[in-house]
Amino acid sequence: MDGELRTQLMKAIDRNLERSLSELSELVGQPSISSQGVGMDAAAELVADLLRRHDLSSRLIETPSYPVVYGEWKGGRPGSLVLYNHYDVQPADPLDLWNSPPFEVTRVDGKLVGRGIADDKGHIISRLAALDAVREVLGDLPCTVKLMIEGGEEISSPHIPEFVQEHRDLLAADACIWETGGVDFSGRPVITLGMRGICYLQYDVRTMSRDAHSGMAHLLPNAAWRLVQALGTLKDPEGHIAVEGFFDDALKPTERDLQLISELPNADEDMYASYGISEFINGLSGDAAERAVYSPTANIAGFSSGYQGAGAKTVIPSSAMAKMDFRLIPDQDPEDIYRKVCSHLEREGFGDVEVTYLGGERAAATDPDEPWVRLAIETAREVYGKEPIVWPMIGGSGPMHPFRHTLGVPIVTSGVGDPETLIHAPNENIRIENFVLGTLHTALLVARYAQGRAAAT
Amino acid sequence: MDGELRTQLMKAIDRNLERSLSELSELVGQPSISSQGVGMDAAAELVADLLRRHDLSSRLIETPSYPVVYGEWKGGRPGSLVLYNHYDVQPADPLDLWNSPPFEVTRVDGKLVGRGIADDKGHIISRLAALDAVREVLGDLPCTVKLMIEGGEEISSPHIPEFVQEHRDLLAADACIWETGGVDFSGRPVITLGMRGICYLQYDVRTMSRDAHSGMAHLLPNAAWRLVQALGTLKDPEGHIAVEGFFDDALKPTERDLQLISELPNADEDMYASYGISEFINGLSGDAAERAVYSPTANIAGFSSGYQGAGAKTVIPSSAMAKMDFRLIPDQDPEDIYRKVCSHLEREGFGDVEVTYLGGERAAATDPDEPWVRLAIETAREVYGKEPIVWPMIGGSGPMHPFRHTLGVPIVTSGVGDPETLIHAPNENIRIENFVLGTLHTALLVARYAQGRAAAT
């Protein structure tokens, strides 16, 4: 291994670090909440501008929802990589649990805190810092690098499958670096090869034209009760999803997947400490807990009905709302799951529950024996000095499916996170040291890929 | 019947009407939300002051929660009445559904709109107007009238049983006029003789120290699911309350109760129209719907967990909260019900659900054949020119139990409401014509009682 390359890249990243962190503050300072349509156009423009500041060509490409920022570094030689990221973030609420303003980067010890700093704005800035470092150290970046930075990841990337299909020539590449990644609780680098799919639904019940005094509860229909009972039918008493046909298209993991899972370090105790719990659900632990990523989930993400203030209010709620995300595995189809949930509720006598499809995407994974995966593992080992952890599939979701199946690229992650980044939650953060290491990993991966292509031609 | 007395009282009420409505605006304008502790002391002072403006002696009597306003008119002869009312109101939310500011009286057509105007501030002002009218027309009010106006009715009158016990000599009377009442959909006067009890509980679940990304839903415990499943055990699939021992102390209605129920006009269609529904729950209608007031209820008054905003947020809620009021019948004891719900949840494996007792009171009713009830019916028939409807028990609750069982007084209602007053809901209102008629009924009832006592001595 050329340890000198790693050292030089590290020095370049360090030299540019204050600029990177300043750009990160600028980007986090621009809210971009896709689910609420807050700040999206301004954020897209800012990202396109950041790309240009780093000598990439960039432009916005419209979609039926938010624009995709497309940026490109045109290499002089064959070979190209596509990098997937997103500029949208989760809503900041509950606001009262933040220790600092969510849309402002606050430095606390070695951490930077702000909404979207880990998911995924830290990765956008890290990619730009990595490309800078490669060009500074190699004097040139001979391969082409394509950045596709979308605005709808947090709402299940509604138009990305069609977008990738339509722009498959523009996005064509040999391999792909995905958002997310970083280190585990012990500092070992984590590389992810697959993501679950998702089907996000909202349930609404309206039982009356207005709320009523609860003294009439022996006669008038309570929307909260209807929704509690309707949700109750979605799982059996043991907690298994009870929607007819839900598992029809669910594939079992391969032997190779299960082998990789069995090699994962046991993180149970770290997870317990991180979430303040004493056990996982369903008595899972160890390998069984890790294998459970191949079990689809039905998660109540929110429930709202009636009086939620202090003390007592005696009211029969006339409306109730719940949100639910199902995490899916190959080959479950989110729109099919949506239809099956509707049929299930109808059959169980809850045809009055209105179900709205808020978005979905399919699961996808890359073969762990791809050369691109091996290169990502080798470079991670070199950067972090620890044996990488390879997840054949993680619990979260992203639009990997069109990249894997339309573009046909193998996908690895390279990232700046850790298990305590609190993504999607108050006080989302990254550690500056992990920003540096993640950037170095991306830079080394890109540099080695470019050198390999150059040597091959 | 002395129709002249009614005519004279009516003229006096009309003469004073603008003053009454102006006082009503003043009282509604002072928020007094007992469940949130908003404006309570100022409201108590204002009520005491209003009583003095009408020549009653008045003072605040402290309780462990909010003060009781006690007012008295000292008659020169034996005989005394006690009038029960309350100065606290329900919270105004959901605020966005109000068409005018809740704590400001707005006049729309023949209606006055504002929080608490029907429940119960309209009644407080109506009582004062009625007493004024009696004194003006009779030249004197020979019996004693005691006003007990409490501040915790909307939080289940936490200390009223002890208060009545402690002040039983002060409050001693021959009979009682209770808050609420008015007319039904067809304009017939309604007299209520009994109220259900209540047990108000809050359920809280915390499964983790913080919310988590829903990609971990195959491992991490979801508080919303826990609470949905816990609540689900409280009713069986047919919707009947499934808490062991819940019905142990529940008495059946008497034959006389059921006879009165069978004489009630069928209001099903009016209720359907009022709430925009096509049927009641459990297939109830007609007599069966009216008899259902003797069925205790378990009402979800509110449910809150996780993300409740627009669009999608993929989070595992670490906490969930629900509020529930049980309406009770004689002889159920709210504290006993609380203990039984706790035991039930424990037994069903939901010992992690924290249950908080927010308040309770016992059901109580007056014998329909009491002379005081007959007098209330006769005077209502005279005032409204229609046959009164007598409810032996209504679905709502109030602290009738200590009045019936500690003071031993027979109780009737006399009031200014109608079925469209929207109490506890946005745009709470009264009709001015019903204010006048309800005030006239109270005045005639008091005057006839005083004349009867004077004749007897």
Describe the structure.
The structure is a homodimer of 457-residue chains. By secondary structure, chain A is an alpha/beta fold. Chain A folds into two domains: 3-193 and 366-456, Aminopeptidase (3-Layer(aba) Sandwich), CATH 3.40.630; 197-250 and 296-361, 2-Layer Sandwich (Alpha-Beta Plaits), CATH 3.30.70. Helix content of chain A is 36%, strand content 22%. The first copy, chain A, has a six-stranded mixed sheet with strand order 1-2-6-3-7-19, with helices on both faces. In chain A, strands 10, 12, 14, 15, 16 and 18 form a six-stranded mixed sheet that branches. A three-stranded antiparallel sheet of chain A has the order 4-5-20. In chain A, β1 (57-61) and β2 (68-73) form a beta hairpin. In chain A, α1 (3-15) crosses α14, α2 (17-28) runs antiparallel to α4 and α5 (160-166) runs parallel beside α13 (400-407). Chain A is globular, with a radius of gyration of 23 Å. The model of chain A has no long low-confidence stretch (mean pLDDT 96). Chains A and B meet through β10, β11, α7, β12 and β13 of A and β10, β11, α7, β12 and β13 of B. β12 (297-306) of chain A pairs antiparallel with β12 of chain B.
Lay out the secondary structure.
The structure is a homodimer of 457-residue chains.
Chain A: H1 3-15, H2 17-28, H3 40-53, E1 57-61, E2 68-73, E3 80-86, E4 106-108, E5 111-113, H4 117-138, E6 144-150, H5 160-166, H6 168-171, E7 175-178, E8 182-183, E9 189-192, E10 194-206, E11 212-213, H7 223-232, H8 255-263, H9 268-275, H10 286-291, E12 297-306, E13 315-316, E14 319-328, H11 334-347, E15 354-361, E16 364-365, H12 371-384, E17 389-391, E18 394-397, H13 400-407, E19 411-413, E20 429-431, H14 432-456
Parallel strand pairs in A: 3-6, 3-7, 7-19, 9-17, 10-18
Antiparallel strand pairs in A: 1-2, 2-6, 4-5, 5-20, 8-9, 10-14, 10-15, 10-16, 11-13, 12-14
